[in-house]
Amino acid sequence: TSITSAKIQVNGVHLHYQQTGEGSHAVLLLPGMLGCGQTDFGPQLNSMNKQLFTVVAWDPRGYGKSIPPSRDFPPDFFERDAKDAVDLMQALKFKKFSLLGWSDGGITALIAAARYPNLIHKLVVWGANASVTQEDLRIYNGIRDVSKWSEKVKKPLEELYGHKYFAETCEAWVDGISHFAENSDGNICQQLLPDIKCPTFIIHGEKDPLVPQAHAEYIHKHIKGSR
Q1: Which of 151, 41, 46, 42 is nearest to 99 (CA)?
Q2: Contact at 8 Å (CB) between 15 and 59?
Q3: Where are the alpha helices (H) located in 116-212, listed in sequence order?
């Protein structure tokens, strides 16, 4: 089946999404920082089982083709993305759906699953964190300057955004996520984890350069019955 690409108005912005498959199990793919459906989930859009699943990959506001608006990072940007994601799926007439979130998309998915338990069927997150530590701040500041990124990671994002938007948005992201370190325990969404009731699978790369493994272990410990 082909992949359709469209925009739909949600919460006052026009959100871009891609959709494929005709299965009864609807799945939303949530990209990471600076990413969009196409950059982060091209293989999944092409290869996930289209008889079992209806697959939707979205571009959060200010990312990918969901521009305008330009991306910003107010204190509640993860909460805003979670509401946008759920409202997008409801606008597309899905009554219940699963979330597959990577990196920032994983954090967004955790919040969405906690806030909207009746809508979320299953949850898979990888490379996600529920807090920001001093070690995380050091790592984030290490990627602030995109000119130091590897060509492999940098090239698709530069092609998507142009150098200026890419560089400025990355700096804004580092500033935005760093604010969480000022909270008690660096909290992003720790208090919400016990509210997640759906079956949850947590994946983590042992060599993840951005997210230390302790984050995955914390999430697993605080979501009851998660694997």
Answers
A1: 41
A2: yes
A3: 134-142, 151-161, 163-178
CA–CA gap between residue 144 and residue 147 (Å, rounded): 9
Helices (H) and strands (E) in the chain, counts: 7, 7
pLDDT in tens, 79-124: 999 999 999 999 999 999 999 999 999 999 999 999 999 999 999 9
SS3 content of the chain, % helix, strand, coil (to 5): 45, 20, 35
Locate the domains of the chain by residue range. 4-130+188-222
Q: What are phi and psi of 201, to 5 degrees?
A: -120, 125
208: its two tokens: 């993840």
Interstrand relation of 25-30 and 4-10 (parallel, antiparallel or unpaired): unpaired
Right CATH for 4-130+188-222 from 3.40.50.10330, 3.40.50.620, 3.40.50.1820, 2.40.30.170: 3.40.50.1820
Over residues 28-45, the mean pLDDT reads 97
Could you write out the DSSP letters of every residue in 54-85?
EEEEEE-TTSTT--SSPP---TTHHHHHHHHH
Instruction: Select from 50, 59, 2 the least CA-distant residue to 26.
Output: 50
**122-147 burial code (b ≥16 CB/10 A, e <16):** bbbbbbbbbbbbeebbeebeebeebe
Is the pTM higher than 0.90? The answer reads yes
